[in-house]
Design brief:
Layout lengths: L18 H10 L30 H7 L4 H10 L11 H8 L8 E3 L13 E3 L11 H17 L3 H10 L25 E4 L6 E5 L1 H9 L4 H13 L10
Antiparallel strand pairs: 1-2, 3-4
């Protein structure tokens, strides 16, 4: 269903109007575009018959004509309000600081995620495995695993597999294989990467149960000893029954 505004081909969003006309009505009280020099015109791009959106171009050709980093700049400001240098409100100053994107696959990220963007706290982050096309479900799952291991623990899949082989696929504490089944996928969970929360240093691979116990004990050896002592004190010893 099309928008009820004359000459507007967009689909209905609310009250018989498309999203743009509805927003314009709420802001100005009218759906009419004021001071719109492109209204009613056709895109000036060759062989394009779409209505003009801005600067004589339709929305698609207008976006294509923008600077390659224009979208990244707008996205950064909308997602990080007040958490970036004030000078970056001007696109020219933003470009002067970050320069050109090394490749279309690079993403603008913080060097220190705990701090806001600044003139020094930013970087172009390359994809973990550039040049591949992650289209299948298996490829997406493998990419997510690589990304999580690198982001959370700073290790690669190869390093994880090497630890897994050294431990013979067993938990480093209970010396048993992982048996807990994922509730949604129905597959057995992989051994979890255990690390020191204070230093971030990776220690070993643990089953989900052992890893959970360490986390709940706040990595405190004394608390774990106290728990063991408690269990031993309250263990019931069954006396053998004599005839």
């Amino acid at each position: 269903m099309s928008c009820t505004t004359p000459e507007c081909p967009n689909r209905v969003f609310a009250r018989g109007l498309c999203q743009r006309c509805y927003t314009r009505l709420r802001r100005t009280g009218s759906v009419q575009r004021k001071n719109a020099v492109n209204f009613g015109k056709v895109c000036s791009a060759e062989n394009c018959t779409n209505p003009a959106h801005a600067k004589g171009l339709c929305a698609m050709h207008y976006d294509r004509a923008q600077h390659p980093l224009n979208h990244a700049w707008r996205l950064l400001r909308s997602r990080n309000p007040g958490a970036y240098p004030e000078a970056w409100d001007r696109f020219e100053m933003f470009l002067a600081c970050v320069g050109d994107r090394p490749s279309p696959a690079h993403q603008l990220r913080k060097r220190d995620p705990s701090e806001p963007f600044s003139e020094t706290n930013w970087q172009w982050l390359a994809p973990i495995n550039p040049g591949r096309d992650y289209m299948t479900k298996e490829d997406r799952r493998a990419y997510a695993r690589q990304h999580n291991l690198k982001r959370r623990f700073g290790i690669t899949i190869e390093e994880y597999d090497a630890m897994f082989a050294r431990q013979d696929g067993l938990c480093a504490i209970c010396l048993e294989p992982s048996t807990q089944v994922h509730r949604k996928s129905g597959k057995v969970r992989s051994l979890a990467v255990d690390h020191d929360h204070a230093t971030g240093r990776v220690r070993s691979l643990l089953c989900t149960d052992c890893n959970t116990v360490l986390g709940l004990a706040d990595d405190s050896p004394q608390r774990l000893r106290d728990m063991a002592d408690y269990l031993e004190r309250h263990t019931l010893v069954c006396e053998p029954v004599t005839a």
